[in-house]
Write a structure and sequence with these properties.
Order of helices and strands: HHHHHH
Largest sheet: none
Structural class: mainly alpha
Distance between the termini: 41 Å
Length: about 110
């Protein structure tokens, strides 16, 4: 029988992958675009090349606009004992039918 020392278990970092899938309906594409453009223009931490890339993504597709409002730091910032180690996300247009019971299976590629 193996025993685990609780003191040593607490000192070792534990990583947890959290997967979240959201489907958002864009009800006012122009309002979303304008808000995303303003956010990118006001972001003092973006380098010029990153800003240009972000502005292009916003102009091409509303999902590019939405991506600028996803903030994993804010999502976990108030959780005690947790520090965000890494985050990646993407947004893309999708076909969605809330009445189709098999939609989730199709979305996952099954």
């Amino acid at each position: 029988m193996t025993t685990i020392d609780p003191a040593s278990e607490q000192s070792a970092p534990r990583f947890v992958r959290v997967t979240i899938e959201l489907v958002a309906e864009i009800t006012d594409e122009q309002a979303l675009r304008d808000a995303a453009l303003a956010q990118v223009q006001d972001d003092e931490y973006l380098e010029d090349s990153e800003r240009a890339e972000a502005l292009e993504a916003i102009e091409i597709d509303p999902s590019g606009s939405l991506a600028h409002f996803i903030d994993p730091v804010e999502l976990l910032g108030a959780v005690p004992g947790v520090e965000l180690a890494s985050a990646t996300w993407e947004s893309a247009q999708t076909e969605y039918d809330p009445d189709d019971e098999t939609w989730e299976e199709h979305a996952l590629g099954e």
